Amino acid sequence: MSKFDGGAPESIGNEVTNPAGDGPVHPRAEMVVVLAQQGIGRNEISRRTGIPAVSVSRIAKANGITFDPAQTEVALKARIAQLKQAQAGIALGLHEDIAVARMLLRTARTHRDYAFASKAIGDLTQAAQRMTPEITEQESVEEVKDFLMDLREQMGKVRDEFEAQHGVAFDSPEAGEIIKQEAKQHDES
Questions:
Q1: Contact 65, 35 (CB under 8 A)
Q2: 63 and 73, same domain (yes or no)
Q3: Domains of the chain: total
Q4: What tens digit of pLDDT does each residue of 132-184 get?
Q5: How is the chain classified by DSSP, letter by letter?
Q6: Is residue 24 a contact partner of residue 65, using CB atoms and an 8 Å limit?
Q7: pTM metric for this prediction
Q8: Domain that holds residue 116
């Protein structure tokens, strides 16, 4: 117990739920619960909140939350995509700065201004190259696979809805006629 707070626990890992058992008592413990319910992984919660990973696990366990590796992987991929997007935004801004430096180079009136603009262009170009996210062939293949799997799933849903609505198999001759009629009606309207 801390001598300053009149008996509150020293660590949020020591008291994670209130005695009634209806949720966390510590605001930081509540953050852990909210983030975990959003599918964010234990280590990411620890990084965001500054709470040790062991305490994050203890808080989650006390509140009936487990960390699903599949959800964690999805959250990690989303975070990586966000970081790449931010990195690409920075790279774009650097390219805009290069254009400004080139304009300064063209309008330089002294050798010193010319040298400064030249150095700025070189430095900005190197920074832009470093900040431009690289997309590997494997990442491209994974993106295409994800797209195709999503497309397959959507096509399956369309097929299922069609069959439920019309009562015929999607690959039957009757379905072909129904689709032709609907397309004709759509073109006429």
A1: no
A2: no
A3: 3
A4: 877 667 777 887 888 888 888 888 888 898 899 999 998 899 988 998 888 88
A5: --TTTTS--SSTTT--S-TTSSS-SSHHHHHHHHHHHTT--HHHHHHHH---HHHHHHHHHHTT----HHHHHHHHHHHHHHHHHHHHHHHHHHHHHHHHHHHHHHT--SHHHHHHHHHHHHHHHHHHHHHSPP--HHHHHHHHHHHHHHHHHHHHHHHHHHHHHHSS-TTSHHHHHHHHHHHHHHHH-
A6: no
A7: 0.42
A8: 69-131
State how far the Cα of 104 lies from the Cα of 98, in Å rounded to an integer: 10
Could you say which of 131, 157, 175 is where a domain stops?
A: 131
How many other C-beta atoms are found inside a 10 Å radius of the C-beta of residue 88?
A: 13
How far is Cα 16 from Cα 64, in angstroms, rounded to an integer?
11
122 shares a domain with 84: yes
State the residue for tokens 């300053």: 4
What the block records as the tokens of 152 is 């397959």
